[in-house]
Structures are given as C-alpha cells and as structure tokens.
Design brief:
The chain has 377 residues and is an alpha/beta fold. The chain has two domains: 185 residues, Endonuclease Chain A (Endonuclease, Chain A, 2-Layer Sandwich), CATH 3.30.870; 174 residues, Endonuclease Chain A (Endonuclease, Chain A). It is built from twelve helices and 17 strands. Strands 4-3-2-6-7-8-1-9-16-14-13-10-11-12-17 form a 15-stranded mixed β-sheet, with helices on both faces. A hairpin with a 3-residue loop joins strand 13 and strand 14. Helix 5 runs parallel beside helix 6. The longest helix has 17 residues. 50% of the residues are buried.
C-alpha cells in the first residue's frame, strides 16, 4: 500500500484481492464464471434484471447452480424490473432460485413502497468472491458485438474477507423483507486472506448509515491535495458536495467531472446541467462522454483513494436508495482507475465557459425548471 493520507474512515478489512472490471465485456464473464463455481451460496442484488439476452444468460446460470443444490437468493427492485414479465421470475422460482421483489409498487402487498428503492448491484458467491459497481443485468451493458448497447460502466471483483461484508449487506436486506429462508449453513467461518489490499465496503441501510457513502466522498474531497477525478452518470450533488468540490478547485486541486453528453433520463440530464455553470466558474473541468451511455459511478483522488459502486451523486442515492460502494485506499488500484479515467477523457469533449454561456434562454429556463425537482429524480 501507498501512503494513504486520505484513507476512508470507514472500517477497513485487510487481506483482499481487488480487480477493476470495465464494461460488460469484462464484468459479465467474470460474474458468470464466479456463479458457475458456486458450491454453497449465491446472493445477488440487481436494481435492473431484464428479460433480454443478458438477463436470460444470468437466469440460466443461476438456475443451473440452484439445480445443483446451491442456495441462490436473488433480490430485484420492483421499480427497476417493473416492465419485466412476471413469468420471467416465476420461471426462476420454479428452478429453485429464491426471488425477492424489493418493495412492490402495490399497496395491497406486504412491504410495498414507492420512493425507497434497492439500487445496489452486487453479487456474492460462497461468501468469498464478491462483485459491486454500476452494472445492472440487461442488454444495455452487453457489448455491441453481442447485440447489446455497450454502455460504459465500472465494476469490481473482490476476493477475500471484504466479500463477506457484501454477503452480510445482501443477507440483511433479504431477512428484513423476505423473512426466513437463509439457511444457517450460509454463515460459514470467516474468509481467509487472499491478498494484501485493504477494502472498505460502504453500504447504506434502510434505517441507518443513510449518509455513509456521501460522508466517505466528502472526507476524501476535503483532504484532496492534487486531483479529484469523478465519473458519474447522474451528477446532481447536494449543496455540501458542491461546496466541497468548488473549494477544492479554488485551493488548486485539479477537479475533473465526467458526465454523459446525452443521458438516458432527460429530466435528470437537464437538472444536472443547471449546476455546471458555477462549477466551471470555480475552475472545475467538465468532460462530456461522447460514446454509448456513461453509467459509471467512480472517483479517484490523489493516487491514494478510489471508489466504485452504485452511488450516484444525487439526493435520491443518499436519501432514498439502498446503495453500496467499495472504497480502496491503495495506490496500485487508484492508478488503475485513474488510467481508465484518463483514457476515457480522450473520448470526451471538454465543456468550456464560452460554450456554456452560448446556451439559449429557453434552454437555461428548462434546466432551472427541472432542477427544482432534483430531490425526487
């Protein structure tokens, strides 16, 4: 490990091996390989799990392991899967996969809900190998060469004791919403170290730690000395985060924000753009990703602190969603994430103050209108 002057104040777990996975091209094969190796348990949370080429690929993999006697628990979000035919998940249940729909959008059903969602994207196999990041299960994340949309996203694979924390986070949600069903044999002895990387798994819970991921961001931003590089699909940070980023830029930190040039949710895109003017005036550099949808939620600071997860820098992620981020305070991993960011910048157009000021009156008005509702997006 390097000299980690801004390491996370969250509890860290030693003895891990962490691998950065870029896009579905790297993440999906690694996840499917882990699923195929499962001997005891698979726990999976996915906000989106579509009935399409990607969803059917994962469904078949989960069903095969369930048929071999592995306990498979899949949690999907009711809003994220609202357009998925009921029969798709019923088919998984018939294959002995335990499926839980998080907070169904139906007042007559137990545990129903509307605003509070499970936005995590995590997978844990045998409590020893875990995955977390921005990738859902859907054709949007499949490479274009396989007929997908090739969305740009980042995931991580964790081997070692930190995977156990991901297991506990998923299991806690399952027990609180689906009730009994997690066999005692799932709770095996602690996982032996397999590497030398310290990892913090920062997850929000329903009634506590709502602001834990936001707090990790704030602490790292305030301690930054050289640079802050953030890639975020839905960049609508709250006032405290905006102040922290602007203050960092004013004290000479190189602050760069990467956002999609065309987001997949137009109101969110417009609300986000309403904030960019003050950022530019403070000296923050804005880069607009030109390729297929940028869906990543990452940050790297000073070659010492890096995070990958499901957390969008918006009000919904810290106030209304279950999220999970992996924080790694290690130079080698941070440099790898910085390398990806630097490479991505080559696929971006930098937004200048001149271009920003040239926006028309009606565009500015629409942006400000949608920003009024940013807390609900």
């Amino acid at each position: 490990m390097g000299d980690v002057g801004i390491r996370s104040l969250e509890a860290t777990v030693s003895g891990n091996r962490v691998t950065l996975l870029v896009d579905g091209e790297e993440a999906y094969p690694a996840m499917l390989e882990a699923i195929a190796s499962a001997r005891y348990t698979i726990l999976m949370d996915s906000f989106i799990f579509n009935d399409d080429a990607a969803g059917r690929l994962f469904a078949a993999a989960l069903a095969e392991r369930a048929g071999a006697g592995v306990q498979v628990h899949l949690t999907v979000d009711a809003i994220g899967t609202i357009n998925v035919p009921k029969g798709f998940f019923d088919g998984l249940r018939r294959a002995n996969v335990a499926v839980m729909e998080f907070r169904p959008v139906a007042p007559w059903r137990p545990g129903w809900g509307l605003l509070f969602r499970n936005h995590r994207k995590l997978l844990v196999v045998d409590g020893r190998v875990g995955f977390a990041g921005g990738l859902n299960i859907g054709a949007a994340w499949l490479p274009q060469s396989l007929g997908g949309h090739g969305w740009h996203d980042i995931h991580v694979r964790i081997e070692g004791p930190a995977a156990r924390i991901l297991f506990r986070i998923s299991a806690a949600t399952w027990r609180s919403h689906a009730g009994p069903g997690l066999s005692p044999r799932l709770f095996q002895p602690e996982v032996e170290p397999v590497g030398d990387t310290d990892v913090s798994v920062v997850g929000s819970r329903e009634h506590r730690k709502r602001r834990s991921i936001r707090g990790a961001y704030l602490r790292a931003i305030r301690r930054a000395k050289r640079y802050i590089y953030i890639a975020n699909a839905y960049f609508i940070p709250d006032l405290g985060l905006r102040h922290a980023l602007r203050n960092a830029a004013r004290r000479g930190v190189d602050v760069r924000i990467m956002v999609p040039v065309r987001g997949n949710i137009l109101p969110v895109q417009l609300a986000s753009e309403a904030l960019l003017g003050r950022a530019l005036r403070a000296g923050i550099r804005i880069f607009r990703w030109q390729g297929a949808m940028l869906h990543a939620k990452t940050a790297v600071i000073d070659d010492q602190w890096a995070t990958v997860g499901s957390f969008n820098l918006d009000h919904r992620s810290w106030a209304m969603n279950l999220e999970v981020n992996v924080v790694v305070a290690e130079t080698e991993f941070a440099l790898r994430l910085r390398e990806v960011f630097d490479r991505d910048v080559a696929g971006c157009t930098e937004l200048t103050r001149e271009v920003w000021r040239a926006r028309g009156f009606w565009r500015r008005l629409v942006e400000r209108f949608f920003f009024l509702f940013h807390r609900w997006m």
